[in-house]
Tubulin--tyrosine ligase-like protein 9 (Oryzias sinensis), 440 residues
Amino acid sequence: MTSASVLKNKTSGYKSSIDHGKSEEREGRNCIRYKCVPLNTIKDVMHQRPNWIEVKDDGEWDFNWCDVGWLRENFDHAYMEEHVRINHFRNHYELTRKNLMVKNLKRFHKNLEKDMGRTEASKCDFFPSTYAMPSEYHLFVEEFNRNPGSTWIMKPVAKSQGKGIFLFRKLKDIIDWKKDRSRSEEQKDAAHLDSYVVQRYIENPYLINGRKFDLRVYVLVTSYVPLKVWLYRDGFARFSSSRFSLSTIDDKYMHLTNVSVQKTAPDYDPEKGCKWQMQQLRRYLTAKYGREVVETLFGDMDNIIIRSLQSVQKVIINDKHCFELYGYDILLDHNLKPWLIEVNASPSHAPSSQEDYEMKYGLLEDTLNVVDMEGRLTGQEKRVGGFDLMWNDGPVYTEDLNLQTFGSLSFTANTHLGCVNDREKNLRQLLKPFPLQKKI
Ligand code: ADP
């Protein structure tokens, strides 16, 4: 029996507070019982949070930071009381598995075109042409033949950290691969056959010092209906260790920017690492191209986030117990157009340096602040620590005082990716002290 199901027959004294009936319900319990995956940064954040107590094995819990494997095995059998929170939506994979994400985006694009016309639909043109393999093999071959000489990337749908990925330019490479795959998958049923996607390789990435990079952006969804989305100010760019060139396509250190790949490069320097903080990138681009260009770029990234979430809004099983902290992977091309590469349900929280640890610690702490098990928020906040509310059943705006002209205020999107993250100052002003005493 899962810990959540244990709750079914017991009265849990603590009732959380998200958006409703706060203090009275809360008074009965003086701690929050959490269950957590054994990963360092997450464990540290929960362990150090006042009045949070870890439960082991089958103990009752109020908050669970689980992995997707736990979710798959337990979620459907669990009864959860009103106040309980868990860090994934039941069918998160609709957005976070590479083939399903593209399927949902293609459908969303088609519906937009039908209902609102081409211009509106073109706002979803932010993912490279992608085909599920092997089911869309023939469609892919048609597209391949229309673009002779172009480069493609083959990716397993359910793996991560660059595992099993390769680039190719000739159909013969994939014919051999296809034969091998069909032999090994003969036993499986058709539903499991689509285990790869083939995608147009972005051949003109934006380079800094000759190196390719992609961006990791953190997005917190606390509800799908209505859609409520928070964007974190920090993030980073992950650089490849070799200078980019299209003359060789076999060098993973040149073409794949995953930290887990780059760490194994022979010339990887752990002191220097392979990351830039988002603020550093934003400053670099602003110095080079000016504020307007950079604001357009960051606005385009906001667009990617919101439209990708809208593409699964009707598919994801909305559940008031669930929230999700997504890791978006975005690549810039040399025209500063951002492309969505993938969305991760369990972005790595393993730190690659002290600075990285502090950033991830703050991110996770602020995730707990937004989820607000302690009931310290009013529900009206547009900012909590490093998170800015970007969508609340519609765009969220901020009053931009710099643009104030003739008594009328201009409104801009309430997003500040790569801007100063003075989270502690904000939290000091925003949050009442923790209301509960730790129970010994
Ligand atoms: P994984 O889940 O294994 O990390 P990704 O889809 O994120 O797989 O791809 C790994 C890396 O490969 C990315 O971080 C990026 O550097 C590179 N990559 C993936 N898709 C493309 C693409 N279409 N064009 C250019 N580079 C890509």
Summary: The pocket of adenosine-5'-diphosphate is lined by residues 128, 153, 155, 159-163, 165, 199, 201-202, 214, 256-258, 329, 331, 341-342 (CB under 6 Å). Residues 291-312 form the longest helix (22 residues).
